[in-house]
Amino acid sequence: MSNILTNIIFLPLFIAVILGVLRAPLKLLKVGAFFSSILVLLLVVFVIIDFDPKGNMQLITYLPWIQSAGIFYYIGVDALSLVVLTLIVLLMPPLYLYMYHEKRKGYWYNMMILQTGVTGAVLSLDLMLFYLFWETMLLPIFIMIGMYGSGMHQYNSMKITLMTILGSMSMLFSILYIGYIYFETYGIWSFSLDKLSLLSFNPQTSLWLTAGFLLAFVIKIPLVGFHTWMAPAYGSAPTPAVVIMSSIMAKLGIYGIWRFGFTLFEETLLFYTPFIITIALIGLLYYAIRAVSENNLRRMFAYSSGSHLSLIALGLFVNNIYAWGGSLYFIATHALASAGMFIMIGLTYQRFRTLDINSLGGIAQKAPLFTFFFAFFALSIAGIPGTGGFVAELLIIIGAFKENFILGFLTSFTMLSAMIYIFWMLQRVLFGQPNNSTPFADLNIKETLMLLPLVILLILTGVVPSLFTPYFEPYLTQLLGVAS
What we know:
Layout: H1 4-21, H2 26-50, E1 58-66, E2 71-77, H3 79-98, H4 105-123, H5 127-148, H6 153-186, H7 193-196, H8 203-220, H9 230-236, H10 239-264, H11 269-293, H12 297-316, H13 321-352, H14 363-366, H15 368-382, H16 388-403, H17 405-411, H18 413-429, H19 445-463, H20 473-483
Antiparallel strand pairs: 1-2
């Protein structure tokens, strides 16, 4: 088991390199990509089976890399990283099934490289190693939007790249300076998270070091004010890239604050807490208004995603077990729901060749199975009872009320606003009058099997959350005690 995390990280990249060197035909490339995702999923299942919820960091690998600079290949998994890791491996097989008819080889190679990037970032415990994987995520997204996107895809690709690089550079500067402080203190270089957590910074230095990390993470989420790349990128990107950005990469912004912020700068984050909570509350309202007024399906759910990610960020900065448990649970359930929704939007475009809500309508009359899955994922995002999103949102709202009545009252509008724009959209798209004469095919067997696991997981997380919460409750209780 000692190398299992390394295999989970690099297996997709290894298969991509082998198939690239051999100049594998398209069919073999598809099989290789899907096979790698299934194999990685099985490896993560083994990790889950042997995982000790009451333990700290597990399956640690600590090997010298650039030893003179204090950079090590240092990886491990705990409850926080296990949640995000599980999301990644659950979403990749459905995405490859969705891509089955994609004939451009670069599309497949970029997806495998992207999987290695996001997985490595989640499991890294050395800050320089984390930064390497963080940047590895960017290149495939840049290529997929720039080469395979639609509309103003090249402009939007450059915009998301430049904004992400801005955040990455600020984070890199903070990482290097922390390493320098460690060198000045102990006489050796180190970027290992556990060693850097022993440092103490003066308040002024800590404020701008924390800001360097926060800028990178709030751009990735994105919180309102740092979001101008979001809707254009979601609108131009191909569906698999949108799923990765919404369901995985945005969650890594939350993960980064949780992992590095509360480990290195837990006291300094108290200074930024009112600011983050304020812009999160503004984001809840602003994104909901934009979602109501948006006529493009993909852009509408981009704003919906922004609203719910703001709720997750708010819960993270409300220091009690309800809000923290809800935020971590929502990371998982929102990822599943948004992945299913964006896949359904992709299938809608394949059939209608448009995502304009005013040009759609009457789908329920033509395709009942399609209607069920479309409505289910949309309502799961809205947090309808019986789905995991409802449990997660309810926990965050309870946590907000426990912290402050007014905060809880304002936070509770999330569910109401989501119901408004979701039901308004469903009424027009599914149950309105048919506005398009294009023949509409219902879901086939492959598409149904591709989506069914996501539905089952969303129902299980909503009906029996006790199956999942024991994996992270002990960790959150311990971490909350440290933060308090």
